[in-house]
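Subject: sequence -> structure tokens, single chain

Hey, anyone have a minute? Need the predicted structure for the following. Not urgent.
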Amino acid sequence: MPAFFRTTRGKIVGWLLVVGALAGLTQLLFLGWISHHPLSAEEYQQTGWEILTPRKSASMKGWESRQIGEKSALSYALDRTRIILMCEFPLSISSESSSGEDSGNTEADSPDRPPIGNGTATAITSDGYFLTAAHVVDFDHVYLTEVAQDDYTQELEATTLHPVRVIWKGTLKDPNLPDMALIHSALRPDKHFSLLRPPVLSPGAEVVTAGYGGGKPAQSSGAILHRGGFKKPISGAHHVVYLSDAPIIAGDSGGPLMTANGELLGVNVSSHFGIMRYLFGGRKLTNHRTRTVCPDTDWIRKLILKDRAEQKEDQRQEVAIR
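Reply:
Had a minute. Here:
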């Protein structure tokens, strides 16, 4: 073998090996490598929080002077959302409700109970109908809540709880159904999106998201990467899926994706990315994309009208019984 490397061909091969080794070392030291082993749910979530959270505020730079109608674009989407709390046990905040759907008034949670998760609901009517992600309401107890900021800790605290009633919910087990849910509660939003037929956006179009990722209200912006085909499952849950690069994290699921003009496209359901690792520690996201379900608004409107009629009939029968 040593004799081979003394030949002209061997010297060329030797230099190629040296160059390849140096290139590989440079990749490890400076460029990193793609991680192919699956991340745990905790690592995936933590990585998203650490890297994507700062990108949220950075993505909204340049929007400070922009408006949607007469309102600032910096809060337009967030003003039309509410935070969802979900858990496997009843929550403890007492509140009064102005409708037949009672607000939460149960025993307090204790330290040994599972943690409370949160998501985002997108308001689409003035009488309490919201869109969100199906996995957000896949719990025994789900509430829409009003929140206030604590003056001392600056943390958000729930002030009222309104139990959520699920009108329609998809499932992750069926690829034909969207990860989306239509819900209703006694919470009446001050502002809501108009349930109009959304525009068809091409790659590169500006979009804005909003949500309560990590329990903190925030908006972010980005651009459309891809628009999927129109899916028409037998259930009637017709929808389109958009991919964008607008950063979202856990807790933003169910929040709106809207156009730069304030038109609702759909609700965000997931964030996907790869991990680039470095030899001496550190990591960064690669190929990040946000997945958004854009439902057929005619179908959603029919579900709402049907539910309103059923609720009126139930109330009529209850009055008759009394």
